[in-house]
Specification:
- The protein is mainly alpha-helical.
- About 60% of the residues lie in helices and about 0% in strands.
- The chain is globular.
Length: about 80
């Protein structure tokens, strides 16, 4: 039985959550680092909103990673 691949939105959300938690940051801290509102960060992490490439770049810069890292499926 094959597992259905994650959507890009799910992959992005899971990577943001993982990287944020690795840094010990709350959603509010990440939002401040990105220059975004905390509720927007929460919506992205819950896959409740679509995100622009500009905001993906903001997340990557805040988390000090290349953009592609946020879109690459993570293997535990």
């Amino acid at each position: 039985m094959s597992k259905r691949p994650q959507s890009a939105r799910q992959t992005l959300a899971l990577n943001i959550i993982r990287l944020r938690k690795e840094r010990g940051w709350t959603q509010e801290v990440l939002a401040d680092e990105c220059g975004l509102h905390r509720t927007y960060v929460g919506d992205i992490e819950r896959c409740a909103r679509n995100v622009s490439i500009d905001n993906i770049e903001r997340f990557a810069n805040a988390l000090s990673v290349e953009i592609w890292i946020l879109l690459k499926p993570h293997r535990a």
